[in-house]
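Supplementary Note 3. Input sequence used for the single-chain structure prediction.
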Amino acid sequence: MEEINDEALLLEALSDKVLHQLPPSVWKNLFLGEGRQGIVFEQRQLTLVHVDAELKAGATSEAWEQFCLQLQGLAARNQGRLDPYVNATALVTFEDPGAAVRMAMALQRAAAGLDLRIGIVSGPCVLAFIRAQGRLWCTPLGSQPERAARVAASAALGGMVISPETHAPGIALRRTGAGAEFQDSEINLSGLAGPAGEAAQAADAAAS
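The predicted structure, written as discrete structure tokens, is reproduced below.
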């Protein structure tokens, strides 16, 4: 699948993502209200970490809640942007490939009671910047999030697959020069996703 460059297609992709992952009020403000004027698209070289998680036999819901807190805290400490995601998965966006790998390894160590499949990919990605609830957020669009999901699905249970370009010269372990918009945007997009926002805010506070 090629990267999306047409603005109309980008708006359609963003609309579909917001509609399925965030409260209806956010979608209405962005696409039926004044929020649409604040939507900006920008292509960046990014690293995405896709996480699939499932409870081990005999594990309790507390293990899942603790995992979510660990995920939010580790993403924040490593300057990753956490997207809300469906079907017991998470997607974290990084400008620094090294930080992405470090977060993924720490998450594996912290995932007591869960089996993880993690996929890490790097490449050009379209970031959508949106303003909601008085703050700036960003979320990735295009083929890279889908590719990250496929790479994670190829991992063994409890394992991690890192795409070759993440370790390529000039990419691995080196920042690509984050712009002010990315730095100033909210780290945890799941704060827009309703009840999970309270846990996200607690994790961010603990990480700071």
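The helical segments are 7-21, 24-31, 61-77, 97-110, 143-153, 180-184, 196-207. Residues 97 and 172 are 5 Å apart (CA to CA).
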